[in-house]
Amino acid sequence: MIRKFLKITLKSALCSGSGYSYAGVIDSDTCYDELGLPYIPARRLKGCLRDVAFLLEEKTDYFGETGQGFDTVTPISIFDAKIEKYAEIAPALRSELSARHITVEDVLAQYTRVVAQTSVDDNGVANDNSLRFTRVVNRFDPLTGQELIFLAPVEIEFESEEKENDVASFLSKIAKGLRHMGLNRNRGFGNVRCELVDCDETPDVEVCEKELQENEKAELRYTIVSESPLMISKNSNAESESYINGQSVLGFFATRYLMDRQADEEFERLFLKNNIVFSPLYPSNEDGTKIFYPAPLSVCRLKKTKKFVNATLEWPKADNTDLDPRNGNQPKKLKGKFLSFIDDKVELTEVSKEIIYHNRRPNEENNVEQQLYSAEAISAGQYFSGTICGSLQDVKIMAEILKEGRMSFGKSRHAQYGRCRVISAEIGKPEAHCQDFGEGDSVLVTFLSDAIFMDDNGYTVDTDTVREKVKLALNIENAEDKYAEIDVKELTGYYGKWNLKRQAIPAVAAGTTFEFCLSNKPFLPTGLGEKIGEGFGIFSIRKNTKDWEIKANENDETNISTQKVSTDVIRPILSAIEITDLKAEILKYVNQNVTKTRLTASAVGRLTLMLAESKFGTNSKVALAKLDKKIADWKDEDKQKDAEKFKEKYTHSDDIEEILSKSKYIGSEDKDDLRLYSLEQALVLLKYNKKSEDENNG
Questions:
Q1: What is the pLDDT of residues 408-430, one digit of tens each?
Q2: Which runs of E-coded beta strand occur in 140-191?
Q3: Which residues contact 165 (CB under 8 A, 6 or more apart)?
Q4: Measured between alpha carbons, how far is 37 from 83 in angstroms, rounded to an integer?
Q5: Bridge partners of 8?
Q6: Most exposed residue of 141, 414, 558, 686, measured as fewest CB within 10 angstroms of its CB?
Q7: Domain 207-293+300-309+343-432 = CATH 3.30.780
Q8: Taking a C-beta distance cutoff of 8 angstroms, is the pair 178, 48 a contact?
Q9: 539-543 sheet: strands from edge to edge
């Protein structure tokens, strides 16, 4: 595999349209992430490169065909173009945003601006209702003052190294021909310089190994972070699962395995015989110590009081009216939510998702019409953790694949979606996922992933049949049935190799819960039901002893890094945001006090002219000093004193100094600029106040 960067340098403002608009404010918005940083979607880049290849009469197959949708598989993988040094800037911004020192809108304002345009008639007069507002990315970087640079990771993967080098040369040639992209590219926007450059990334990950015997069972525990949105197949083409299912994980490892090996007997043993169990990747915190699983159907939230309750316990409770559903306090399922169980502490979280819009171009050859469509995706920047269980030898083979440091899942993973980075990985003994049980214990068996069961007639989701099969697998056939809450779904999928949909299979959905009263100690298999190796039938079993207290994960720990980061790299942005905030406070102060002066209209005009002369060709500090000299030369002593007081009030008064003392990031030059700004605003407002007074008196 060859890894490169597509380097895009802005030569004008750019609008890479997101498809969103805000009535009366913005008609065409540009793409930006949850931090307020602009980016260029990979599918947009791939389409532009394909157009260039077509114009140069080069081969376009490497970029896919129009109308293929999200299931396109190509040898060139292109991912979102993000601003240069994004890996350094993003953690610092995330830290400031989480501390609520700044807002996303503050960051966005540093990188973008809103421009207006109208259409005109033959006489040059604007047509009615033609005013449009577009948010564009500024040409220059607010951090460096240089032209803004975007970097898009590119991966080229072919059967031979020679072929990969040929494709890299081809892509380098095409990249140089890309000169325009985005909206209004024929109206001055979207002028860029594009080139293919070497990638200095070293994504390799060290896999920690604990001492194990060769014949022991082993478990590979690993944590990843999504660097781009993820679209994990669901029943609906427009929706995405909330976690990465085991089929997707197995598919990734099988694909990477076949890059260097053949589909031989060993491949069949590893991936087709359930000898290795690939668990789904569930939401987690950064180090993978806290994993959130699909919420059991037995856990509900009451409609009125919002209290979390365990539905397997007997309620309504006579001694607690808050838990009485007869008062309209009905229990609601936590569908789409995830819970983390650590001892008696239970936390609730939810995976962040977004809606992304795409424009499909028409293709007459393939009879494809133009269409604007949308897709749901798991947002980037979230952590997921999972395990791979099997023999030590087999797990080590998977660990070698994981050492590459990169993973990709779901639809359109060759353009814009599915890119993940491995954070950590460790091989050790399989962790016990249960407590010690004995006769008479009441236990809850909860499915952490979807499960597939079969009887003599084929696939089944019948509650009684599934319950008996669960009891049989756990060797607790004589256990007393106490509670069952089952949810079903239809499993579908897609065979990328054959461009065909998978057979639809009825399954028991994750979160399904059974309660049993044990008559003996249970046996604990790796999974329940069929296709365990693909991550189906993963379950947990725990004692049902009391009503758990669930705490909502308000800090959203699955998305925020816990590491302390330096904000030095974004200091220019923080300074600019701070200056904007201080200007707002100064303007408020000026508005409240500008009428309290003895200056006449002529004195205001003269002082305004003196200030304009003083600041010409120099900095604010020198300009204020020159203004002092000019005021001192004023012959009328009364007007001179009034001017001195006015200038002092809006540049060095206690109120102004108090406002400036709130600053954390700006220097003395910026403070002098703000003093000059305060004086200028005071003179402007005073000028119009005097004019209004004269008109009223006249």
A1: 888 877 777 888 999 999 998 88
A2: 149-156
A3: 2
A4: 8
A5: 150, 194
A6: 141
A7: no
A8: yes
A9: 480-485, 513-517, 442-447, 539-543
Bridge partners, 422 (sequence order): 224
Q: Are 461 and 508 in contact (CB under 8 A)?
A: yes
CB–CB of 143/36 below 8 Å? no
The most confident of 322-336, 365-379, 458-472, 623-637, by mean pLDDT: 458-472
The pair of three-digit structure tokens given for residue 584, joined into one six-digit string: 């707002």
> What is the pLDDT at residue 325?
63
Mean per-residue pLDDT for 555-572? 63
Q: For the chain, which residues make up each domain, given as ranges? A: 2-198, 207-293+300-309+343-432, 568-697
pTM: 0.79
User: Given a cut of 80, is residue 686 above it in pLDDT?
Assistant: yes
Give 552's contacts (C-beta < 8 A, 6+ positions apart): 347, 348, 349
**Domain 2-198 in CATH 3.30.310:** no
* Residue type at position 503: Q
Q: Which long-range contacts (CB under 8 A, 24 or more apart) does 128-132 make?
A: 132/27, 132/28
Minimal CA–CA distance to 8: which of 130, 159, 181, 169? 181
Each residue of 522-558: pLDDT tens digit? Answer: 888 889 999 998 999 999 988 886 656 666 664 444 4
Residue 430's alpha-carbon distances to 212, 218, 219, 221, 249, in angstroms, are 11, 6, 5, 9, 19
Per-residue confidence (pLDDT) for residue 445, from 0 to 100: 92
